[in-house]
Amino acid sequence: MGTMDGPAVLAAHGVLQEVMKRFPKAASKSCAFSPRALEFVVGYRNGWHFVRVNRRVDKCPEFGPGVSLEYDGFELYAVSPEGRIERYPAMP
């Protein structure tokens, strides 16, 4: 894990909020639908932050190591310098 600057942390936090909105409310107590089961990779280019969100249910006690619910499933977001968040329309 590396050190992130303030704008990168804010970009990742904004994306976390967007991802949490998409999870079913009924599953909110499950680790699989919590921030603990998410991994964020943040990149920066030309003023924009790009955030890749990986689902990591293998970090949850109810699943355990090596378990994956998706085949290389991830979501990709772009965060503008003004803080506008855009989700990539489909998995690349």
Structure notes:
The protein has one helix at residues 6-22; strands at residues 38-45, 48-55, 74-79, 85-87. By secondary structure, it is an alpha+beta fold. The mean pLDDT is 84. It has a four-stranded antiparallel beta sheet, covered by helices on one side. It has one domain.
Shape: globular
Query: Which radius of gyration do the C-alpha atoms yield?
Result: 14 Å
Largest sheet: 4 strands, antiparallel
H/E element sequence = HEEEE
Question: How large is the count of helical segments?
Answer: 1
Contiguous uncertain segments of 5+ residues = none
Q: Numbering strands along the chain, what is their spatial order in the largest sheet?
A: 1-2-3-4
Note the beta-strand portion.
25-35%
- What's the structural domain tally? 1
Percentage of helical residues? 10-25%
Distance between the termini: 24 Å
Using DSSP, what is the number of strands? Answer: 4
The quaternary structure here is single chain
Which class best fits the helix and strand makeup? alpha+beta
Instruction: Give the mean pLDDT.
Output: 84
Task: Describe how the helices and strands are arranged.
Blueprint: H1 6-22, E1 38-45, E2 48-55, E3 74-79, E4 85-87
Antiparallel strand pairs: 1-2, 2-3, 3-4
Short description:
This protein is α+β, with helices and mostly antiparallel strands and about 90 residues long. It has one helix at about 5-20, and strands spanning about 40-45, 50-55, 75-80, 85.
Any descriptors?
92 residues; alpha+beta; 1 helix
